[in-house]
């Protein structure tokens, strides 16, 4: 009961701050039932005067680090908050004052079990601070005497407890949203909160971020245009992550990139193609590829940092994505519609032809414009509208990928304003489809099927023995259960007989007394 009151109080506080900062302006009253429209009108009356753009970021920043992280996550979910709110949330900066150097050093020494002087020859003040961790620049001496520069990420103290408390409140508010507006279930607010909870839980253990960094490095070891820093495992723990220091130019500084002699247009193509390779080829991609996390090194290679938010796609989702992109490129809207149905994303009671018609309404306007004028954000807005009409359930991993693609496109276009995203994407998409759906892919699928069948055949004797043991156990338990039931019936029958006789005796005695 106390926790319910606490969650309710936090929910009221969140609502109050959102109303005061004007964040309710993004809610479409036309989509609300009458009783919620009244609540919205009352909430809008609480807005502070003179509010400008950036209302959602201001509100979430006031609410604290957990809500800043939630806002960043919702920026990847325009299907829930709408494109206008998603664009506003993209302004949200996860920048907070750094915590004291002494606290950082204590966390470092407690995690790694050694004094600072034995770990590094120098350790800077924080150079960047966010809601979960902050980063320091450090130097260490290798066994051969050479000096190495590393980036050291240190977890903010008390952050786990604060996030755990706020996530519980968010779970409560998600249940309230579903109760007040049942049609919101299609958007799965509770699943959204759980996805955020899992994402934050991964970010809260820096060993897992190091593992993500290592996995991505392994996937791209043969790629010549993209690289990631190497983690320093012996200096990494739950609250500390050390990795190679990156000297480079941020991708949002185009003038510096050009001045350094790099080809900005080629870098734009590399951004798009690298992201698609990671997503479609590997099924594992950096889901926070904003310009602050991307550099170009002196050799002209693209370098990504900060691997707290990663995305995964299974083979089914990768095939879906590749065929969707190729379908739009080739204007094969029927195939795009069929892919949705084959994947089970659109309920079968809908018409493929009707869905293809709706997809055509998205695709044709694209091909009527110059390639450099095509906005992926516009395509996504229309796609979300169409999927809602056809009862398509939200696919969290696909929406995150699509939104990341919009961010990646924005980064690439900042380098080359005339970039043709579709022409740039086509080689990567065609290569993957040819490899996985062509003769080589079919042969590989057949090989995997044969190996799976061989494993099953090899396991048949063991499976048969286990099945026999289970059946015998079930049979024995069934017989015992039957015996218990029969015994219970006999006991109940005797009880009923004796009860009936007792009532007759009592009734006879009462009659005898009455006659006497």
UniProtKB/TrEMBL annotation:
Superkingdom to which the source organism belongs: Bacteria
GO molecular function list: ATP binding; protein kinase activity
One of the GO BP terms on file: ubiquinone biosynthetic process
Record's keyword terms, sorted: ATP-binding, Cell inner membrane, Cell membrane, Kinase, Membrane, Nucleotide-binding, Transferase, Transmembrane, Transmembrane helix, Ubiquinone biosynthesis
Annotated ranges, domain Protein kinase: 121-463
Residue intervals passing through the bilayer: 496-515
SUPFAM superfamilies (alphabetical): Protein kinase-like (PK-like) (SSF56112)
Associated pathway: Cofactor biosynthesis; ubiquinone biosynthesis [regulation]
Family membership: Belongs to the protein kinase superfamily. ADCK protein kinase family.
Protein name: Protein kinase domain-containing protein
Species: Methylobacterium frigidaeris
């Amino acid at each position: 009961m106390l926790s319910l009151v606490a969650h309710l109080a936090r929910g009221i506080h969140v609502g109050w701050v959102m109303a005061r900062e004007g964040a309710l302006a993004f809610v479409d009253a036309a989509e609300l039932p009458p009783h919620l429209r009244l609540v919205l009108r009352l909430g809008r009356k609480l807005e502070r005067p003179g509010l400008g753009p950036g209302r959602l970021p201001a509100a979430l920043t006031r609410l604290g680090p957990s809500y800043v992280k939630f806002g960043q996550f919702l920026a990847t979910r325009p299907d829930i908050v709408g494109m206008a709110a998603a664009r506003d949330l993209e302004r949200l900066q996860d920048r907070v004052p750094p915590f004291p150097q002494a606290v950082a050093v204590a966390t470092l020494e407690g995690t790694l079990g050694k004094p600072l002087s034995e770990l590094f020859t120098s350790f800077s003040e924080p150079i960047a601070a966010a809601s979960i961790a902050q980063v320091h620049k450090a130097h260490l001496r290798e066994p051969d005497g050479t000096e190495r520069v590393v980036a050291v990420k240190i977890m903010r103290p008390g952050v786990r407890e604060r996030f755990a408390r706020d996530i519980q409140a968010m779970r409560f508010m998600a249940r309230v949203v579903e109760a007040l507006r049942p049609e919101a279930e299609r958007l799965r607010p509770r699943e959204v909160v759980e996805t955020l909870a899992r994402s934050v839980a991964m970010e809260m253990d820096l060993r897992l971020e190091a593992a993500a960094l290592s996995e991505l490095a392994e996937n791209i070891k043969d790629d010549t245009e993209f690289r990631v820093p190497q983690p320093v495992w012996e200096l990494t723990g739950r609250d500390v992550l050390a990795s190679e220091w990156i000297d480079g130019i941020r991708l949002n500084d185009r003038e510096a990139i050009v001045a350094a002699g790099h080809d900005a247009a080629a870098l734009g193509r590399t951004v798009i193609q690298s992201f698609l390779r990671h997503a479609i080829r590997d099924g594992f991609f950096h889901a926070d590829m904003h310009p602050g996390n991307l550099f170009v090194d002196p050799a002209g290679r693209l370098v990504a940092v900060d691997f707290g938010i990663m995305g995964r796609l299974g083979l089914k989702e990768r095939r879906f994505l590749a065929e969707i992109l190729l379908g739009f490129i080739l204007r094969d809207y029927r195939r795009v519609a069929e892919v949705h149905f084959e994947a089970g994303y659109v309920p079968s009671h809908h018409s493929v032809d009707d869905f293809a018609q709706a997809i055509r309404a998205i695709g044709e306007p694209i091909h009527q414009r110059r390639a450099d004028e095509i906005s992926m954000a516009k395509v996504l807005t229309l796609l979300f509208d169409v999927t809602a009409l056809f009862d398509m359930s939200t696919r969290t991993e696909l929406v995150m990928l699509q939104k990341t693609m919009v961010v990646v496109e924005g980064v690439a276009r900042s380098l080359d304003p005339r970039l043709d995203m579709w022409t740039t994407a086509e080689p990567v998409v065609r290569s993957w489809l040819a490899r996985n759906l062509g003769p080589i892919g079919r042969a590989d699928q057949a090989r995997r099927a044969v190996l799976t069948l061989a494993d099953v055949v090899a396991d048949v004797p063991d499976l048969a023995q286990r099945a026999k043991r289970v059946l015998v156990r079930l049979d024995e338990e069934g017989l015992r259960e039957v015996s218990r039931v029969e015994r219970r019936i006999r006991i109940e029958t005797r009880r009923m007989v004796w009860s009936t006789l007792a009532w007759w005796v009592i009734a006879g005695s009462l009659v005898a007394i009455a006659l006497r």
